[in-house]
Amino acid sequence: MKYLYVIIFxxxxxxxxxxxxxxxxxxxxRKYQNELNLTQEQMVKLKAIYSKNDARLLLQAPAQNWREDxxxxxxxxxxxxxxxxxxxxxxxxxxxxxxxxxxxxxxxxKKQSK
Length: 114
What we know:
The protein is mainly α. The chain has helices at 2-36, 40-59, 66-87, 90-112.
């Protein structure tokens, strides 16, 4: 019965979440394009990486508990970041690392303020 509720929730909520995630991904990719000076070819590759990993996150089977789920999602995100790094040049990679550090600091500040 629990799985039925999860399935119903995913069916109802997935368009909302996927649209929100899609908008966030477009913003991320555009931010990377501007800050990292990406080529058109790199943009195409990044969009493919984000799309593939978004699908993996959505299709992931529910874990036994939320901690396992978070662990699986974080592993997918880590793998995605590795793929992104492979697309970048050495100069872009340095800027990407700085950008990620800045994002992590902002997230930590936001988390502390809650």
